[in-house]
Design brief:
The chain starts with a helix and ends with a helix. α1 packs across α2. The model has no long low-confidence stretch (mean pLDDT about 75). Strands 1-2-3 form a three-stranded antiparallel β-sheet, with helices on one face. The relative contact order is 0.09. The protein has four helices and three strands. By secondary structure, the chain is mainly alpha-helical.
Amino acid sequence: MSVTEEQLAELERLEREATPGPWRVDACEVLGPIEEAHEDVIVLGDADATAEDLAFIAAARNAVGPLIAEVRRLREENAMRDQRDEARELVRRYVEGDCLYEVQRLLSGVSLPAGELAAMRDQRDEEAKR
């Protein structure tokens, strides 16, 4: 299952509006600080809530912010990798004498590892000699 950008934004909003962490479980209660009131938020478990359920609620509250940040970081990293892959494909096509304009447009915002373009040109020249 993939989390959509809208779902991620909603989780981020809920996390931002919730009582700040860290939350903890104390016996059968979930406790979380309210800094300005210097009190604890107490969520009492109902008859069906187990200690494990309450521990999960507290752990999820503490983890959701960092998890959202990690999802955003990984999405950005994947987008950059996709751009680099597209750039490499265009460079390959350029080295083969194709799509100069597309390569220049795409490479204006993407950096390739040093020497990669030159290596591809050298490879093309070697193949042309054969």
